[in-house]
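Observation: inputs received (chain + magnesium ion).
Thought: call the complex predictor directly.
Action: predict_structure
Action Input:
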Amino acid sequence: MFRRKFLTTALATAVALSISSLYGSAYAANLQPTQPKEDWARDSVIYQIYPRSFADSDGDGIGDLPGIVSRLSYLDKLGVDALWLSPFYKSPQADAGYDVADYRLVDPMFGSNEDFERLLKESHARGMKVIVDLVPNHTSDEHAWFQAALKAKPGSPERARYIFRDGRGENGELPPNNWPSVFGQSAWDRVPGEKQWYLHLFDSKQPDLNWENPVVRAEFEQVLRFWLDRGVDGFRIDVAHGLIKEPKMADLVIEEGRENAGALVGPMWDQEGVHEIYRSWRKILDEYPGQRIMVAEAWVSPRERLAQYIRSDEMDQAFNFDYLMTQWDATAFKNVIDSSIALTTTVKAPTTWVTSNHDVVRAPSRYGYSLKDQGKYALPGNGIGPNTPQPDEALGLRRARALAMLTLALPGSTYIYQGEELGLPEHTTMEDKYRQDPMFLRTKGEEIGRDGCRVPLPWKADAPSFGFGPSNKTWLPQPASYAGYAVDRQEKQSDSTLNLYRNLLKLRHEHRLGDGKLHWVEADKDVLAFDNGDIRVVINLGEQTAALPSGSQVLLSSEALPEAGKLPASTAVWLKR
Ligand code: GLC
Ligand code: MG
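Observation:
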């Protein structure tokens, strides 16, 4: 991070100066007491792999680590700096691996620990960093600790690693408080035959850990070291805002009609106590050579609170969900870009730019709606089903391509969710019987859930499972339209979304845009324009054709430009200044 790099460099200079006054400057010039720390993450492009759905090597219909290894040259060619792998640990998969039963073991479904080491080695050999997902808020109910807790008595040390409480009511038949699970229904499950209940902010199979207990802290410090010792470059911290609960665990004030909705603000989120945990982790990461990063997944409100997670002695970056939730509107994008940069600058952390991940409707489908409907049908988590009014696929793709040109030109660190580089839409017509997201299951379909963005990737248009694996099995069905998005087809089309991303990433690196500065330039209504170094970006978020500055040299455009000097609706360009 900038500040740490600055400090080490300043220290090195100070040492060199004091020695130079003793021995003369010639000696000092050759002396390099400490190398500044490597600082790769500030401007990196980090590609999220959702292992279940990336590539399947053995034909069981579930993506795996050898599948990822077999596609590393694809990622290298795409031009990303780092990979983030969603969980591949031993897990009963009640929440697609975000329910971890053993934090040190690769689930056999995904391969072996040796496969992971190979993945790490081969990624590093290609110059790509690898960060892994850490899920500290909860374990799986099949984790040895929780199994032991169930067998042990109330008040035992085994139970003290989780959050058990007596129920209310005469015999403890009512949950200890009214907290809802993020996935719907109560956040409490009763231990059969007992007064005690355990807390799970997510699925019943994801009991929350008690982070007030030093035993829990010590264990996770060891888990961090376990993966750092193997050479990982960092961690994405799942539910980073949830670890500490307000001690009284008072009832939530719940608005009528929102009894089931996960709240953003409340006594279970964003408590001050979480920061001490991240400060202790920072120290551990800094013991290791090179820059090892932590990225916060923290849904907090108001957004200013996010800066706390990325102070210089805590994490390196936090996902910018405000950017992800921005509607297709020029003012909205301008405001979110400005406020994001302003916010992260207060703590000297890089800004991040995120448009998709495994929890939200894919961008081309989100932006395939009118402004009015976007807020209605394409909310995070609340997917699109066969009975939802369908997004306009062509419009959504067009906007997503323009958005990529905006996003990849912004200074800071950018995330790409697998398939985003293909312009892949959400599977918006998946039948209920296939759905596996606990959110869908717990709300009995009231929330459609996240399966639609987790569908296995299409690699080859004319192969079984579109080349996802050697068989025709896929753990979620792929829509027929995915053939048109397959990697092999897109490689052959010079104007495909894949080739657009490859070109954007190449130019972004050459022009060091991630490391640059943004300067707004005046533009027409519904158009945004800014300079970053020697690149000018212009994006038309309106519905009318706009004018381009005369004589501009177009380096890249998200669509063919039918008329010189004109920028069609839902189109963006990179110009040479
Ligand atoms: C995070 C993950 C999500 C998961 C939840 C519970 O929000 O991104 O996929 O369901 O945490 O671990
Ligand atoms: Mg497999």
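Thought: report the result.
Final Answer: Confidence is low (pLDDT under 50) at residues 1-36. Residues 519-576 form a domain with the Immunoglobulin-like fold (CATH 2.60.40.1180).
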